[in-house]
Protein 1
Amino acid sequence: MLFNSIEFLIFFPIVTILFYLLPFRYRWIMLLGASCFFYMWFIPKYILILLITIAIDYTAGILIERWADDASRKKWCLIISIISTCSVLFIFKYLNFCSANYVALAQYFGWSNPGKVLQIALPIGLSFHTFQSLSYVIEVYRGTQKAEHHFGYYSLYVMFYPQLVTGPIERPQNLLRQLHEEKALQYDNIANGLRLILFGLFLKMVVADNLGQYVDQVYANPMDFSTLDISLAMLFYSFQIYGDFFGYSTIALGCALCMGFTLIDNFKAPYQAGSIQEFWRRWHISLSTWFRDYLYIPLGGNRVAVPRWALNTLIVFTVCGIWHGANWTFMIWGFAYGVLLIVERGLRNIHVFDKIENTTGRTVVSLLNIGKTFIIVTLLWSIFRATSFANLHDLFAAWTHNASLPHTLHVNAVSWLALGAFIILDLILMQQRFDKWCGQLNSYLRWTIYGGMIFSVIALSSVQHYPFIYFQF
C-alpha cells in the first residue's frame, strides 16, 4: 500500500484509532495484522518470504542467548543466521543478475549450453527487512539486546508498517523496546505526527513527482537532449530522489509518532554538507550507521594502518552500492564514493585555508565546499539513476557533445516553485525537524503553511503516478 494513495488515507486513521481504543494487551495483534495487510496489498504471497527471515532470526536470537556461555555454539548460530538470511536476499535480489552475467559471459566465449536468464521477482523492501532483522541478531550476539521470546512482538518489530517497506532501518534497542511500552494518547504526538505526514506528502507528490517527469524524459533518450537539458535533469534528479526518500521517511516518522512511537531521523539536510564524509552522516542515516556499526568497525574501521583503512572504505561503499541494487551501475556508484572518501582524507593534510581567520572568508570557503560536494553528489546520482552502462554512456556522451543542440526541456512553473520551496524549507530545517519548527510558529502562519501544502498536494501534484524510488531496494 502506498502512502500517497486513497487506500492509505482510509487505512491510516482506522489503524491509529483502533490502536488507542484497544486495551494494551491486544494492540500488538492489531498492529501486526494491519502491517501484514499493508504489505500484502502489493503482492500477498511475498509475505511468506518475509516470514522465513523472521522465523530464522527469531530462532537464532533465542539460541544465541541460550548458549551465551558457549562461545563456539553461539558464534556458529550467528554465522548460520547471517548466511541463511542473506541467502534469501541473494536468491530474490541477486540471482537474476548473476544468471544474466553468466549467460552474457557464456555467449561471449561461445560456451555450449549457456543457460537462460532467470526472472525471479524481487519482494518490495527486502533489503530493508534483511538489515533490520540482522541488526537484531547481531545485537543479541553482542549482548546489547535481550532475545525477544514473544514471536508476535518480534514479528511486529520487523513488520511495523510505517517503516516496513523503505525504512528507516530500526535497531531493536529503539523500536522493539517501544513496542512493549503502553502508549497513551497525547495531543502533541498526534499534531506533530500529522505535520510530518503532510510535509512528507508535499515532498513526494509536489516536489519529487513533478521533477520526476522531466528526469524520466531525459534519461529515457539522453541523445535527444542538449547539454543544458541534461544538466537540468541531473539537478532535478538530485532533488527528486531526496524529496522522494525524505518524503517517505518523514511520513513513516509521522505515522509512528501518531501512535506514540519514535523512529530515527533518516535525513539531516544532506545537501548542506561540506564534504563527502559529512554527506553520508546526513543522508540515509539508518543505513550509513548500519554499515558503520556492522561492517566498517568490525573490519577495523579507522583504527588500522592507512592502506587497510582505504581497503575497508572501498569494501563498505562497494557493498553499500550492491545493497541498493543488482546492477553494475550501483556497484560503480558505491565504489566511486569509497574512492572519493580516500581522496578526501588525503587532501585534509593540505591545509590551504587554515590561515583564513575572518568570518567572511570562512563563510565563503564553507559555501564553496557545500557547492563542490553538491556537484559531486549530483554527478554520482547520474550513475545511480542510469539503467545500464549503455544508458550511462549515452547520458554523458550527450552531456559533453550536445552543447550546440537547442534547449527543448520546458519546465512548468509548478516544478520550479516546488523546487524553490523545498530548498528554502531545507535551509530553514537544518537544525530542527519540520514538526518542531512548525509548532513554534504563530497559529496564523502555521495554518497558512498547512493550507498551502494541502492545496499543493491536491491541486499541484504530478499527473503521473510514481512509486517511491527506494521501493525497488
Protein 2
Amino acid sequence: MGGVLLNRHSCGWSFTIRLAISTLIATSVFMAGALHAAPAVPSGDVAASSSDATLQEIRLGRRSIEEIESRWNIVRNPALQARVETIVARLSPFMERNLQYDVRIADQEMVNAFSLSGGTMYVTTGMIDFVKTDLELAGVIAHEMIHADRKHVITQMARNDRMTLLAIATAILSKGEGAAIIAANALQVAVMGAYSIDLESEADARGIDALVMAGYNPVGMLTLQERLRAESLKRAHVDPGIYRTHPEIEERIASAARYMEENDIEINRKYSLGVLRTNVGVVSGDLVMTIDDNVVWRGADEEPSRDLFKRVADDLWEALQMETAPYDIRVEGSGQSEAFLIKGRTIIKGSEIPGGSAALSKLREGVQRAVSDARSAHPMADYYM
C-alpha cells in the first residue's frame, strides 16, 4: 500500500508495480534538477508548519487522479464499492482532519493500496482478492487514511527534495514545469509507498488506534503484514529489489505487535484470518466435528451426541486461538474424572462422552493438528511473544 506493508519495489503493499504511469515518474526524475536549482530552506517535517495545505493537497491529488484514471480502469461494482465505503465511513470520525475521504477500486492484479494528497485512496482488485477478511481490509484502509490525514505524501516530498511547505504549495499552484514535477514526485511517493519508516510506523500505530475506536479488531493489520512478508519470500527470486524492504517490514511487524501489547490489545489472529472455524455435520453416517478442513472428533449420529457436539464446537470456537500453546491443549485425569481442557478451561468431561464417541485423547490430537495446520498456512507470526 503505498503505505502499511510490503511492496515488491519499496515499503508499500504491492508485490509487483507494473504502473502505466512510469513515463510521468521518469519525467519527474529527469527534470528534478530544474526544480532543485531554486534554493529552498529545508523544512524538516511539513506537519510542523502552521500553513494549511488542504487546498494545495486537493489540487495535487486531482492531478494524480487524472493521471491514474487515464491509465487504469475503475471498477463499478456496487457491492464492492459499498464494502470499502462502509469501512471508510466507520473510520472517518477518528481522523484528525475532516477530509473528503474517497476510496476507489482499481482493476489491477497487483496487490496494492495507496492514498493521494487530499484523501482519495485506491485499492486494487488484487488486494481485495488477497485479504482474508474485512478486518484485514479495514487494516489496509485505516493505514492509508492516516497517510492522507497526516499529510505524509507532502511530508515525504519535503524531506526528499529539501523544500518548505510554501515552496511545495507555490509549485502546486503554478501551471509550469514545477507543478508537473511536484505532481510526478507526489504520485511516485504515494503509489510506490516510498515513505520513511517513521511515517509508515505512524500510519500503523495511528491506524490501529482508529480501528479500535471504530470497533474493528486491529489484528487484521498485523496478519496482513505477516502474510505479505511470507509472500515476498516465496517470490524473492522474481524480483531481488524486494530485499530492500526486508529490514523495514520486519521492524514494522515487530513494532505493530509491540504497540498492540503495550495498549492491551489481545492478539488473536484467527478472527482476521478467518480460520479455526468449528462445524458439526454428518459424514458417511457418522457425526463429525471439524475445525477448518480437519476432522477432530467422531461419534454416533444420535440426538444426545448432536447436542453435545454442537456445544463442544461452540466452546472450542470461543476458547481456541492460533496463539494457544500445544501444552495448553490437554487431557487431564482418567476414567470418569477425565477432562479435555484449553488453557485451563474445561471443554468436556469424560463422564459426558456418549457411547460410540471417540476418546478425549483423539479430540486433543485433532485440535492440536488443526492449530498446527492453521499456523503452517500463516508461518511468519511470532505466536508466543
